[in-house]
Amino acid sequence: MDMGAALRDLGVTDDVLTPGEKEQLDRDGFLALEGILTAEEVSAINERLAELTAAEGDRAGLEVHQEKGTDRLADLVNKDGKFEVCFSHPRVLAAMQHVLGEFRLSSLNSRAALPGEGHQALHADFGQPVEPGAYEVCNSIWLLDDFTPENGATRVVPGSHRRGTMPTDELPDPTAPHPDQLQLTGRAGDVIIFNSHLWHGGTRNQTTAPRRAMHSYFAHRNLPQQLNQQTYLRPETYNRLTPAQHFILDVTSPA
Known about the structure:
Layout lengths: L2 H7 L9 H10 L1 E4 L5 H18 L13 E4 L16 H11 L2 E11 L23 E7 L11 E2 L10 H4 L11 E2 L7 E5 L4 E2 L9 E10 L8 H4 L2 H6 L2 H7 L6
Antiparallel strand pairs: 1-7, 2-3, 3-9, 4-7, 4-9, 5-6, 5-8
């Protein structure tokens, strides 16, 4: 199995993304894909995430990261087949191929910004600047609630992935509003792709309900994964997945 064969098996063809969508992803660093999940799928995923959050308690998210003011979960690849769509959907995979070329899943996590919380400094998801076009990481936000200006929708600085700098190189206070920032709003069931070298950050949830999302985060195949999928892979997970999905995870056998 190679990258081309895996993507073909998962339905990725040259026309899965339009030329205009590819151009926007190149220029702005982000792209909204509307209606990827149905309302029924969103409801089922939210229900399962709530069950996992309650069951894992204060250990929730420990496999990767915990964050004050949020509910986080990690290693979702192993925790329900409902989450497979996040590393298998052809529109999402086509976007990852366009940005990264050869890639693999780095991690699959969820993040719910709690009321009054969730604000982040502008940051990039890579430790150093890269030259335009030499991208190493790319993320996808799976909206499980409507993203609005009030409930903590992610802010981005369009085109900043092409600057070849980090926010801390240019900004005296990366937590402050940026004059060029915009918020990535959308409906539950949408997926927003963003080049992870793009300056971005969560904003404060000013509502009385959590703002929920999943993140399937991909990286070039030569980079370490945020969560080593081979180390964590459960036999039942391996057995339910296809060879193409194994390739996207970069796993060869159960852990």
